Amino acid sequence: MIFQGEAIQVERRSDDIAHMVLDLKGESVNKFNQQTLKDLDAALKAIQKEEGLRGLVASSAKDTFVVGADITEFVTLFKAEEEVLIDGLVKTNAIFSALEDLPFPTAVAINGLALGGGFEFCLSCDFRVMSEKAKVGLPEVKLGIFPGFGGTVRLSRLIGADNAIEWICTGSEKRPDAALKDGAVNAVVAHDKVLSAAIDLVNRAAEGEVDYKQRRSIKTSALELNNIESMMSFETAKGYVASQAGPNYPSPVLAVKTIQKHAGMTRDDAIKVEVKNFASVARGPVAQNLVNLFLNDQALKKTAKQWDDKAREIRKAAVLGAGIMGGGIAYQSASKGTPVYMKDINDEGLKAGLDEAAKLLRKQVDRKKIDIEKMANVLNDIRPVLSYGDFANVDIAVEAVVENPKVKHAVLKEVEAALPDHAVIASNTSTISINSLAKAVKDPSRFCGMHFFNPVHRMPLVEVIRGEKSSDEAIATVVSYARKLGKSPIVVNDCPGFYVNRVLFPYFAGFAMLVRDGVDFQKVDKVMEKFGWPMGPAYLLDVVGIDTGVHAQSVMAEGFPDRMQQDFHSAMHLMYEKERYGQKNSKGFYRYELDKKGKPKKLVDEEAIELVNSVSAAPQEMDADDIINRMMIPMCIEVARCLEEDIVASPADADMGLIYGLGFPPFRGGILKYMDDVGMAEIVARADKQADLGNLYKVTDRMREMAKNGDTYYPQA
Questions:
Q1: Average pLDDT, the chain
Q2: Domains annotated on the chain, with CATH
Q3: In this protein, which residues make up the domain named 3-hydroxyacyl-CoA dehydrogenase NAD binding (predicted)?
């Protein structure tokens, strides 16, 4: 044994090849935390002292290779002084360079995921042999940073600047064929052959059959680009990347600038450029917020997984109602491996549901995500039925009929009678009280809410709504089913609108009052989109459906009359009266025409502008900050209320619910993180300035207490 540590061990093989095995104790995956880096440094020093070695092969004892750096350590690291951060990166890079500079050939056997720092380790080796089941990539931009362990340097020299920019700036995971085509790996082999192939490659290099020094030289030299090629490549890339990333995500553009700056340098000088630029972006608010989101997402997954022990096994599901929503749920269930009955009251409804599933599958086939055989198998797992005849073997039934309490009551009574005693019943409703719907079933303990967001196949969030009598087993089973569907579930308690819609409608109410007071709705849209929302409030109402918005607003007004009851005729209600329902009938606040891809294109509509003006005060100019405060303060207060009333269990649930359910700007870290960054004292002050607008702008006693004490929702460094 050459070296034995907590994360790495190295043994000498009989052919004088050193075999480095990465196996971080106490963890299900390998990652580059401080312990692993310490072990790697010590292991390389031990290898350097070992006489007579002919080469080195690195492999993993786990199903993954290395998933990246330890994100939990980033929170503290990114808040350190710049000199401290740079010093740590310099030391880490020295370790990776020591691996690259070993006096014999090196190869890595990539058996599974090799991402971020894990792939940067692979790039430091002379040869990369990849399993047919593995994936590689540099996804750091998703955390608001870019590779900092030499990735921008080695990858750009290995596969060319253009390819490296695409890899780094999209952060995508690459399958074996793509990695091999670009030249990021040297070979792709059968999964059970990956280690032996890497060993064979090192032996051939040691014997002189393969020139490893020439390959190493490419990575440690300057990029082979003349001035004209460099200018064309990088200037074009910067413009394109900036247009794709947008102004709120600086790391992709800085990654391009970093590669451009060190293109003419040799490795060690180039790494200094990478380290300095990495430190500048890592210490910025976007990186810190995106890292916080990553940790929140991990917390969300951990919380959901904790329900597993109480959940019943789901072998067959049923969906009641075969419209767009029902068809979407059926598609999601079947495509993720759970066969499903799809019931409706007529053949036309069933055809609509099947057409929706088939449409989604065809798109998958067109994009080469699945083949025709997979499409056929999924469709075969969706069984359309007009009766409850086969429901005796169903484990969970999701009611997704129209948003009408009487219809839902009738359907829930019918399905309960047809289901076995162990089956769980869930209602996909966006507004109707779960406690109210529970009155329709004889055993309310097995009933709860399961609120999907439209479109089902894209939106990651599912709200699992606990009624007063919902059992832990029912909640656990629905959470488990949501996870099987590939969704991120949060458990919320019952109230009008549950969590996401409850906090959305104060935001819409802020918009309604702005328009009432004479602020141009198109300007509001532009300001809120610049704030980071994927679409402004008027556009969002058109997408949701004006009729849906009016219905939900009436539910909110009934549930929270002190602050959500409107005493004026809003533009949304006028649109509804004029049967302008938004995208569903091509006219709302805007008008819509299909583009070449068949997607609705938003266009200015003079008729809509005239209608809005008819229920608005004289036009007034308002600066962007005031518009943002008028829009965001009601939502902030309602989120705080939901947390205080235990509608949501934690700040992580609250923030991820809005990001996954509404598209709250991720670079802001979530709405509670946004409040922390602004400061509760400032939030309260902004709300108090709007006191004349009513109770929507009245903060809670707890918020005032937090402002007084300087408290935050998340721990501060």
A1: 95
A2: 3-283 (3.90.226.10), 312-494 (3.40.50.720), 501-647+679-709 (1.10.1040.50)
A3: 316-495
